[in-house]
Fold:
Amino acid sequence: MTKVLLASNNKKKLAELQRILAPIVPGIEVLGLGDVPAYEEPAETEPTFEGNALLKARAALAATGLPSIADDSGICVDALNGMPGVLSARWSGPAKDNHANNILLLGQLEDVPDERRGASFVAAVAFVREGAEDVVVRGEMPGSVIRELRGTGGFGYDVLFAAEGYDRTTAELSIEEKDAISHRGKALRELAPIVAKALEA
Ligand SMILES: O=P(O)(O)OP(=O)(O)OP(=O)(O)OC[C@H]1O[C@@H](n2cnc3c(O)ncnc32)[C@H](O)[C@@H]1O
Ligand SMILES: [Mg+2]
Structure:
């Protein structure tokens, strides 16, 4: 088994990364930040998901020497010109309060009619290790922002987002349903063969 560090401080995101990746990369032993000595997390200062994912993955590699994977993700709302985007976690302020973020976003979109409530979840996932080029992939899940908060699954903005073709929010899907269509699922399924190959070498 080869150890790979999943460098996220978000427990629910980490659980998704782990449950999607572990079954599709043979021989991988997935570690979380709780399994390695603590190190200072980098500030997410880049303007793109890719940039921030690389920043977090490189910090993990530098601190631990382990092959490392990091995810930077968020919701991009058409009517807000792509925001909250990379600011999704802190949309209502530095406290990273999910419920406050959701209430703020719903309020901002109150006067936006149904036909203009399009949005996408986006995830960039970076994989870095010593002696090889950094890799970063992106997955997207198109859909729309509904007008209320619904569901108890998932995390973050899942309670107000319905994926294209679904009446239920992504917080009302089973984990299998969410992983099959999610931004994170798509990115990780693209990354998996690259990680598998790196672990063989
Ligand atoms: O940076 P790490 O430590 O990984 O954890 P984080 O929660 O700060 O993660 P991000 O910086 O990538 O911020 C992403 C935010 O976007 C939202 N988000 C991302 N993926 C999501 C998903 O699948 N469902 C709902 N919200 C999501 C959620 O609010 C996250 O806090
Ligand atoms: Mg973050």
